[in-house]
Design a protein that fits this description.
Layout (H helix, E strand, L loop, with lengths): L1 H24 L2 H5 L11 E8 L2 E6 L6 E22 L2 E17 L8 H8 L2 E13 L4 E13 L9 E12 L4 E12 L2 E13 L4 E7 L2 E9 L2 E16 L11 E19 L2 E18 L10 E5 L2 E10 L3 H4 L2
Antiparallel strand pairs: 1-3, 1-16, 2-3, 2-15, 3-4, 4-5, 5-6, 6-7, 7-8, 8-9, 9-10, 10-11, 11-12, 12-13, 13-14, 14-15, 14-16
């Protein structure tokens, strides 16, 4: 695993080194002469993500300690975006979401019964919901974006305060010049009994006709290489995670459910290729490094965890088909 981590890290350093050399060669006027199709956002997606085999370890005062090998950790994701209004510098639309998350564990090295592992393997975890997007151009350089949504995140399709997530994202962006776009915003959410509020900062810098630096903090930093209008390569560092309501009478004697949460940081490369104008094919690969992993009462953090978990570093692979706005519709 350490070799994989080192390889991915070296590849990202190499990309940044190439960018510096490229920018030194190109001058600003040369960039203005390039007529290129901008990188277009995904409005619909079908993808399958899987982690390689990894070991996971549990420690708990109440349930004891255990370990197991996760043979498969896979997520099926579906996204469908539907534009409802597109006129007068306004965009209003809805995106439907469905995720299915499954685990397969190997108990050969830990024959003793451990309820959390049994539950994880027996059940499928689901995210099901929708979000609304409102975007308005205030003038030629400024834009306002509002996203609001809700979803169920649980091993049972039941909506209550411990299985639901509700959120609002407000952001303001400004095009400083042909090369640079900046933005700031605020994310407010109530996720499975836990409220969250944190700031968002975005920075997009076109370094040359081929290279773009794209920061969406605190979640992602990406360096995108435009091989041509139909092929992109991106090196990224991204915080990824999930949380689900766990309904198990043994783990929660009061039978009000628990929350299983996992956060990772991914170092990887993605390759995106146009199949036909609005239809693209994507392949992502890299290393996933665990940051936090625990089972807790709804609303509690890791320090109050019922079971504290850790997971080894592991490679990941993601395959996907996605839809972007057609060129004639997206370009002004």
């Amino acid at each position: 695993m350490k070799k994989i981590f080192s390889t991915v890290f070296i590849l990202q350093l190499f990309c940044f080194a190439v960018v510096n050399a490229q920018v030194e060669k190109e001058e600003a006027p040369e960039l203005d002469k390039v007529i290129a199709i901008p990188y277009r956002p995904k409005i619909a997606e079908f993808s399958y993500n899987t982690l390689g085999e990894y070991n996971t370890y549990c420690t708990s005062d109440e349930f004891g300690n255990s370990s197991s090998e996760v043979e498969r950790d896979s997520q099926l994701k579906l996204r469908l975006g539907i534009p409802l209004v597109m006129k007068d510098s306004k965009l209003f639309g809805i995106q439907l979401k469905y995720d299915r998350h499954n685990f397969v564990l190997d108990f050969e090295d830990s024959p003793e019964h451990y309820e959390l592992y049994d539950h994880i393997e027996r059940r499928s975890f689901t995210s099901l919901g929708a979000r609304f997007l409102f975007q308005k151009s205030l003038d030629d350089t400024r834009e306002l974006t509002v996203i609001a949504g809700g979803e169920i995140k649980s091993d049972e399709i039941v909506l209550n305060k411990n299985t639901g997530k509700y959120y609002t994202h407000i952001a303001y962006s400004k095009q400083l010049n042909k090369r640079t776009k900046i933005g700031a915003g605020l994310m407010m959410s109530y996720t499975l009994g836990r409220p969250q509020v944190y700031p968002l900062v975005s920075y997009e810098r076109r370094l040359s006709s081929k290279w773009t630096l794209d920061l969406n903090l605190p979640k992602q930093a990406a360096l995108r290489y435009r091989a041509n209008e139909k092929f992109y390569i991106t090196a990224s560092t991204e915080v990824k995670g999930w949380r689900y309501a766990v309904n198990n009478a043994v783990l929660s004697e009061e039978n009000h459910g628990l929350t299983l949460r996992k956060s990772d940081i991914n170092f990887g490369l993605s390759f995106e290729h146009e199949v036909h104008d609005w239809l693209w094919l994507g392949l992502d690969m890299g290393l996933s490094k665990n940051l936090r992993y625990f089972l807790a009462e709804p609303g509690d953090g890791r320090k109050d965890a019922v079971i504290d978990l850790t997971a080894d570093d592991t490679p990941y692979v993601k395959f996907g088909l996605f839809i972007v706005p057609p060129k004639k519709m997206y370009l002004k």
